[in-house]
Amino acid sequence: MKKEEEIVRLHQEAYDRVAPYFEENVVPLFRPLAERLIELARIQPGEQVLDIGTGTGLAALLAAPMVGKTGYVLGIDVSEGMLAIARRKAPHQHFPSVEFRQMDARALDLPSGSFDMVVSSFGLPFSHPAPVLEEVHRLLRNGGRLVFQEWGTPQEGDDQAGEAFRRVLEKYRLQKLTGWAGRFRRAREASWDIWESLEESDAIAKMVKEAGFSRVEVFEEQHPTFLPSAEAYWNLQNSWASIRSEVEALSERRRKAFKQEVLRALAPLVSKKGILLPWAVIRVRGFKA
Ligand SMILES: C[S@@+](CC[C@H](N)C(=O)[O-])C[C@H]1O[C@@H](n2cnc3c(N)ncnc32)[C@H](O)[C@@H]1O
């Protein structure tokens, strides 16, 4: 299998496995971030909107009331597990203008020039960014817009909980990971450089321009987010495909010990507001001439 194909299949499997946890623990925290994204999209009634990497449908379902009855929203994702939840949240009789379909963002089986707007909330597969952005450009009609968000760089020194968690993870995670989890780890490690370079606004703007967008705007915002307890922090971490795959590979006994040590390490970091997640987000808006 080609390397790129393998990366997509690994993400598909990872999100299939993590879907219910992602919906329960990540989506409520992502909601305000997606609301901000949709605000920047300025979607109009009657527009045709595509949500790439829709997951459990967060951005698609925020866009739905904006396009109204005359518009259309299509959410696509490689993971059927994520899409099944999206479809449950949006039964056809209540959301007649919304559809969810399984598709790979690198090769969208959709006609050129058929969308007014493409949105994506942490859903563009950036282990291979250029072909995806070119596909998006092809799908947009002239005058169409792309709006997406990805992780930015948190303020220096803010991520104490993340550092504590990673220290304990480093101690417990298996050095040698076999099977699909091992392949998923290697695929993630192989794309670290790309992800890191994309935390820079200039690099991301350049890449979007190179895909053919005539005007590109980049917005960087801090979104400090709080979790009420160390237990909630543990549950959140276990809802990311990357962490869950490492944790599931441990024996029951090691997993319990790992969790106890994480809870102990986080206890001093629970302030009156809770545990800080120093989230920083880059949002990009591109226009097709
Ligand atoms: C971090 S989740 C974001 C989900 C959702 N947009 C949200 O904000 O809650 C990333 C999503 O991108 C999907 N994804 C990864 N690679 C993809 C690809 N090549 N094509 C389509 N979707 C992909 C994953 O299956 C996953 O559902």
Fold blueprint:
Elements lengths: L2 H39 L6 E5 L5 H10 L4 E6 L2 H10 L8 E5 L12 E7 L7 H11 E12 L8 H13 L6 H12 L1 H6 L3 H10 L4 E13 L2 H8 L3 H8 L3 H15 L8 E13 L2
Parallel strand pairs: 1-2, 1-4, 2-3, 4-5
Antiparallel strand pairs: 5-7, 6-7
Helix pairs in contact: 1-2, 1-3, 1-6, 1-10, 5-11
Pattern of helices and strands: HEHEHEEHEHHHHEHHHE
User: Which CATH top level class fits?
Assistant: Alpha Beta
As a whole number of angstroms, the C-alpha radius of gyration is: 19 Å
CATH superfamily: Vaccinia Virus protein VP39
Count of extended strands: 7
Straight-line N-to-C gap: 37 Å
- What are the distinct ligands in this entry? S-adenosylmethionine
| Oligomerization status of the protein chains | single chain
For the largest sheet, list the strands in their spatial order. Answer: 3-2-1-4-5-7-6
CATH architecture: 3-Layer(aba) Sandwich
Overall number of domains: 1
Largest sheet: 7 strands, mixed
Descriptive account of the structure:
With 289 residues, the chain is α/β, with parallel strands linked by helices. It has helices spanning 3-41, 58-67, 80-89, 129-139, 160-172, 179-190, 192-197, 201-210, 230-237, 241-248, 252-266; strands at 48-52, 72-77, 98-102, 115-121, 140-151, 215-227, 275-287. The protein has a 7-stranded mixed beta sheet with strand order 3-2-1-4-5-7-6, with helices on both faces. Strand 2 (72-77), helix 3 (80-89) and strand 3 form a beta-alpha-beta unit. The longest helix has 39 residues, at 3-41. S-adenosylmethionine is lined by residues 8, 11, 15, 27, 30, 34, 53-55, 58-59, 77-79, 82, 104-106, 121-123, 125.
